[in-house]
Amino acid sequence: MKKVKIISIDGGGVRGVIPALILQALEEKIQLRTKNKHSRLVDFVDFFAGTGSGGVITCALLNPDDKLKAKAKFSTEEVNNFFHEFCLKAYSKSHLHKIQTLGGLLNDKYTDKALNTLFTEQFADNKFSQLIKPCIIAAYDLDHRRAHFFNQHNAMITKAKDFHIKDVARVATATPTYFQAVNIKSELGISYPLIDGAVFANNPGMCAYAETRKMYFENIKNPISKDMYLLSLGTGLPERQYTFHEAKNFAPGQWTKPLLSIVRSGNAETVTHQLKWLFDAEKNKNGFLRINPDLKNASNKFDAASKSNLKALKEAVDDYISKNESLLNEIVQNLVPIEKALE
User: Fold this and answer.
1) Disulfide check for 34: which of 39, 45, 116, 151 has CB 3.0–4.6 Å away?
2) What global pTM score does this model have?
């Protein structure tokens, strides 16, 4: 039976290296299955969702080719290279900025100058409506105090919902205390003051489920969980632990970053629990899969972008892949049914 295939990518700062590398591993397996080195993962997925670094990765995955607008510009390997460059440039600060902000106490920890340059280089003036597949990226509207969702399918309908991809990617990085909030404009010139959606949906899996429920996919209209195959990609475990002795002595200002971490991980775990129940209820237990590898020797810090930690993150993923080859093969079989592989 045909399923609506969905990939959801968590936020996690530098740890976005983990889902990016897993996606690359899946694409390589797809190329082997189809016997076509030009096969792209995105060609076999119906819908994407991203928050934070997952939103940045989603934008890169679905960015259209300069000439063939219906095709992805980047392979997953190129997306990985881009994300690696993103980490090195985004989470870097000058000595002057450290002094001016007292190490991030007086203002956001990082500036966005390098980010804006990088996003302009990668996405040029492409619009969100031009992304090659339906997707949703979560943000939070400070003015209206409500969730804001960038929808590719809605952007195709009205300029009021369309934005530059580079602006959406910048919003996805606007995590409080790390980067400033962003005020962007739609194609109709309407302003939106936004921050990263990780404050309420660090795991966007439930957002993906809710959005696809309203949509039509070939011969599947308003799919429910029994009609879906949803792969949810986390950014690594374990999260930083806080002892009771440590937490009870926190001053108000010391709670800021622990709270952000707790909100992110708490949301991810809750959404995973809810989705498992939804898919179990429709007797489609194998239709939902959550991958969230152990970090091993890598840091769990949101902004640990040293070359040594990026290497440690890759080693953690390599270790996971080597121990879960059969699982990844099963995912590819679900994404690329045998009739598609033979086309």
Assistant:
1) 39
2) 0.92
